[in-house]
């Protein structure tokens, strides 16, 4: 499951970056050529829906990472040192396991977080400016 979702996330990142880049370029060209309100609204709705899709994936990764950190904190703050030894051993294993970060990755190359979201948006904006310079 992890391999499939990791590959799926990687494909989503590449696809969404390319589509956001192309839609941004079409949006700039539409404004420049004064094609009409309908074309602008249609392009902008596609542009924002693709950005929203990337944001939701990154939001899920950020949420998972923050909840993983909360597990470590909550387990440590329990009075595990006053518990019976069999229960404290279980809590120790939970603390040890929760120190490994929980993340959603895109192809095991980048963690899906808000930082990744800004990286994707910056890359798309760079590609848009290159396409506009070529145009």
From TrEMBL:
InterPro entries: 7tm6_olfct_rcpt
GO terms for cellular component: plasma membrane
Compartments in which it is found: Cell membrane
Transmembrane regions: 7-32, 44-64
A GO term for molecular function: olfactory receptor activity
Membrane topology of this protein: Multi-pass membrane protein
Pfam families assigned: 7tm_6
Entry keyword set: Cell membrane, Membrane, Olfaction, Receptor, Sensory transduction, Transducer, Transmembrane, Transmembrane helix
BP term (GO), one: signal transduction
Protein's name according to its UniProt entry: Odorant receptor 67a-like isoform X1
Taxonomic source organism: Temnothorax curvispinosus
Higher taxonomy: Eukaryota, Metazoa, Ecdysozoa, Arthropoda, Hexapoda
Gene giving rise to this polypeptide: LOC112464094
């Amino acid at each position: 499951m992890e391999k499939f979702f990791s590959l799926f996330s990687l494909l989503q990142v590449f696809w969404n970056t390319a589509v956001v880049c192309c839609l941004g370029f079409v949006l700039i060209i539409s404004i420049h050529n004064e094609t009409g309100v309908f074309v602008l609204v249609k392009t902008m709705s596609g542009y924002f829906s693709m950005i929203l899709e990337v944001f939701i994936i990154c939001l899920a990764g950020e949420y998972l990472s923050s909840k993983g950190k909360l597990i470590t904190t909550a387990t440590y703050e329990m009075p595990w040192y006053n518990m019976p030894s069999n229960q404290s051993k279980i809590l120790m294993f939970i603390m040890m396991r929760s120190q490994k970060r929980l993340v959603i990755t895109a192809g095991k190359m980048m963690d899906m977080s808000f930082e990744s979201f800004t990286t994707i948006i910056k890359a798309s904006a760079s590609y848009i400016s290159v396409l506009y310079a070529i145009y």
